[in-house]
Amino acid sequence: MSLYTIGGIFGSLLCIYFGDRLGRRRVITIASSVAIIGAILMATSFSLAQLIVARLVLGLGTGGYLATVPVWQSELSRASERGASVVADTIFIGSGISLALFIDLGFYFVGSNSVSWRFPFAFQIVLLLIVITFVSFLPESPRWLVKMGRLEEAREILGLLLDVEPDSEAVINDVRDIESSLAVSSSESRWGVFKMGEQRTFHRTILASSVQFFQQICGINAITFYTTTLFQGFIGLNPVQARVLSACIGFSDISGGIVAFFTIERLGRRVLMISSSIMLCISMAILAGTTSNPDNSAALIVAVVFVYMFEGTFSIGYSGLPYLYAAEIAPLEHRAATNAISTATLWVFSFLLAEVTPVGLNTIKNRYFIIYAVFNAVIAMLVYFCFPETKGRTLEEIDEIFLQSKHIFDPPRVARRLPRLRMAEIHGMDEKDPERMQGQGTEKKD
To answer: What is the C-alpha to C-alpha distance for residues 8 and 30, in angstroms, rounded to an integer?
Structure first.
């Protein structure tokens, strides 16, 4: 697990350089291909050295596409549909977790035969090939195309997405808004993510990384990775019962993803994150109490219920939503780099908690869950005071929220009072500019 996570860290960080240089589709294709190589190496391993390399390579590819897919989705989606589009990933994440756990359950009965671990490793190749195939038929991000000066292609894709002609007023306005946002956030270096500037870029990088940090520090690894251990060691189930319940936990992820899909644009990002954090806090506190006495069967039944409750609630507020939010609040000029850093943050703390959790469960046992209850209470407060609402905003309007903010507590207030805007008009961009109206452009240099 640790080697896979280290590969994920480096795969994410490589997108700082390659994310804008190659484009969203190409990065996803290359990253998926690297992951396929890693899966092949794992499925055919006959030595520890090969397995080590395979885990690193698989993590490298996975980190690359995890840092890029949410950016691509966000840049392709309308403001009114962006949240639902990205958090729909949660449904598929839950389906994947459930499928993986049921495969693990099935091969548990195979015994020590090498097929029991080679087949699960090889099976993921099929899914990655499906990703590569579908990506080849889907459009590139129009915002990336505008950034690279490929305006005609950007207008054609925006026309398809909006179901209008490429030269329609709606498309022209969208291109103008994107260019306006680029002009405001323009920086001579990709390392502008670490500079504050007028757009508060470093502030936004911190928020994007924080929301991915929240995804890990809420305690999901203590549940997902150690569900079987939890059911056997703390609740006292036999190995088969523990694995059946662990496999079924993926259905909680799917249910949570469905709830998120239908509420993200109605309730907003802040409401889902804050309410989910409160519920996760309560769930962890109840788990700490109900697993304290292994002889209390009624309490242990409640514990099983709240393991499922935790998993479903996590899927509502912290499975797909952090990827969405990190992509939304990053400026176009640095969106790929910001998401690379935020996704690397997720991998770093996934690695840390994967190392710490077994020690915590073995030493302080059920009291380990109290730590996560406290973390979730703090997360709820941080989201309330520091994270602006992005529901229904274009990515360019979100830029304006930070342009008008003066300190870390300002964005939520600005977002509440800021009306719907046309960015090009605000920043005085002339719609008659002949260079903009042409379908030509010069690629932006590094």
So the answer is: 14
For tokens 């991998």, what's the residue? 347
Written as one string, the DSSP assignment of 56-86 is HHHHHHHHHHHTTHHHHHHHHS-TTTHHHHH
**CA distance linking residue 148 with residue 171, whole number of Å:** 17
pLDDT reading at 431 higher than 70: no
Of the candidates 150, 144, 160, 287, which has an alpha carbon nearest to the alpha carbon of residue 218?
287
Q: Could you give the CA distance from residue 366 to residue 302 in angstroms, rounded to a whole number?
A: 14
Distance (Å) of CA 84 to CA 189, 208, 250, 265, 415:
33, 19, 20, 7, 20
Cβ atoms of 171 and 162 within 8 Å: the answer is: yes
Gap between the Cα atoms of 338 and 201, Å rounded: 9
Q: How far is CA 169 from CA 118, 155, 173, 238, 276, in A?
A: 55, 11, 6, 65, 40
Tokens of 407: 């300190």
Q: What is the pLDDT of residues 36-76, one digit of tens each?
A: 999 999 999 989 999 999 999 999 999 999 999 999 999 99
No. of H helices and E strands in the chain?
24, 0
> Is residue 424 within 8 Å of residue 146, measured between CB atoms?
no
pTM of the model: 0.86
CB 110, CB 32: distance < 8 Å: no
